[in-house]
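Sat 14:20. Reprocessing the chain from the morning session after the first attempt stalled halfway. Input below, unchanged.
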Amino acid sequence: MRAPRRKPARRKRLCGRGPPSAASIGTPIAWPWDRRLPIALRHPAAWEQSAGLVARRTEWPAMAKLAQRAEAGGTQVMVSSTAAPAAAPLGVALVGTGLAAAMHTAALRLVPGAEIRGVVGTSAGKAEACAQRLSLPRAYRDLDECLADPQVRVVHICTPPHTHPDLAQRIAAAGRNILIDKPLARTVAEADRIIAACARSGVMLCGLFQHRNIPLCRSVKTAVDQGRLGRIYLADCFVKWWRTDEYYRDSSWRARRATEGGGALINQAIHSIDLLQWLAGPVVEVAGYTTTAAHAIETEDVGVAVLRLAGGAVGVLEGTTAAYPGFPERIEIHGTAGSVVVDEGRRRVEWYLRGQEPRIEQEGVQQGNAADPAAVSPEAHAAAFADFLDSVRTGRPPTVDGHAARKALEVVEAVYRSSAQGGRPVYLPLSP
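Finished this time. C-alpha cells:
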C-alpha cells in the first residue's frame, strides 16, 4: 500500500512578528488594474513575455534615463500586438513639448488602441523639435490645425497650469475629449470653469492622478472601504522631496503664482494628497502653513497642515522640495483594526492588521523621483490613459473625472488660504 503523498508546507511570507524587513518581502504582485486592460499592461514582466512592438525610445535625456532604468531592471517597455482591441484606434494629440509630453508619449505607446497623431507647441518650431525628439508623426502649426484633424478624438494637455482654462475651453468647444495633467488648474474657480466648459460641450474630462491606478493603492482602497482597518482615526501624508536650484531657475513657470499657482504642494505633493483624500477622505477642514526655506522662489517649498476628515479622522500633511537628498513619499492610515503604510516611492504596502502577521506587498517597478523629476515609470500613466480611452469608447465616466480631480486641488488651495490667514482653519467645500 502506497504511503499518502504529503502536501508541501506553505511558505510564510513573513517570519516572526514586528516590523517586516526587506528580506521578508514577497514576490511582486500583478497589475490587475481592470479586466478591460490587456495582460501586457497588468504587470511589467508581461511586457517581456508578450510578442509585440517595442516602444520607440526618445533621444531626450530625461526619457533616455527612464529607458535605461527599465533595461537595468530587466524589463523592456513593450506592448502586446495580440491584445489590441478590435475597435479602431483612437487618435490622441499632445499639447505641450516638455517633460510631461515625453512621459505621456512613452505611456501612450503602451496602450493598445491609442494612436498618437501629433503634438502642438507654443510655436511651430518647438512642436517640430519635439516631434523629431519623440519620433511623433506630426507637428501641428498651432492648436487650430490640431483641432481640424478629424482623426483627433482626445487631447492631452501637458502644459503649465495657467494655460489650462483657455486651452480646455477651446478644445471642448471643438468637441474633443480632454485629459489634463495635474493640477487641473491653479485654483478651484478655474477648475470649475473647465468642468463647466466640458459639460456644455458634452465631452469627457479626465484629470491625471495615476497613483490611483497602482494596484497596491487600489488594494488599500478596497481594504478601507471593506472596513478591514476598522474605524479610521488617523491618516497622514508625507512628501519630502528634493529639487535643485536649477530645477526652478531653468523654468519660466515653476513656483510662480501667476503661472503655477503655488509650489511644492500644487506640483509635487498633490498626487499624494489626492491619494490620501481618495483612500480616507474627503477632507473637510484644513489648518496649515507654508514657507520658502531652501530655494530662491516666489512660492512655497515647504507646506504643512493638520487635516480633519469627514469620518472624524484627523491627519497631518507635509509636502516639501527642500528635504535633501529626497525621500520616498508615503501615506499612513491607522484604524481600530490595524494600520497600513503606503510607500508610494518604493512601490510597496506594509500591512499591520490585528490578529495577523505583518505583511509586505511589493510591486516590481519602483519610483525614484524624490530627487529626479524624470525618474517616473510609465505603467501607471498607461493604466490611466487606457481607462480614459475606454471611457471615450463606451461613454462611461472616467475613473478620475473633473470633479474627482478637483478634490486634491481644493485641499491645496485650502492650505494656501489657511496659511495666508496665519494658520486659521479653512472649511471645505471652499466658498468663492
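The two ends are 83 Å apart (CA to CA).
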